[in-house]
Design brief:
Elements lengths: L10 E4 L4 E12 L6 E9 L7 E4 L3 E3 L6
Antiparallel strand pairs: 1-2, 1-5, 2-3, 3-4
Length: 68
């Protein structure tokens, strides 16, 4: 597993599909020779549960709470 940019369960938005979900975990793909990072995939779940989906980690951003 890879390093999470936010705590597990943080509400995030996937900028690719524009879907909102909870960040569950990150999978990193690395080279064997030098352990160089090739790509990171974020796994997200809809708020309240449901089927997870995965997207590249780069376009995943935390959902900002509206100001009151």
């Amino acid at each position: 597993m890879g390093k999470l940019p936010y705590p597990v369960g943080t509400l995030v938005v996937d900028a690719v599909s524009e879907r909102t979900g909870c960040l569950m975990w990150v999978l990193e793909e690395r080279t064997k020779e030098k352990n160089r990072l090739l790509k990171s995939q974020a796994f997200m779940r809809p708020p309240g549960g449901g089927i997870e989906w995965d997207v590249p980690l780069e376009p995943v951003m935390r959902v900002e709470e509206p100001e009151r």
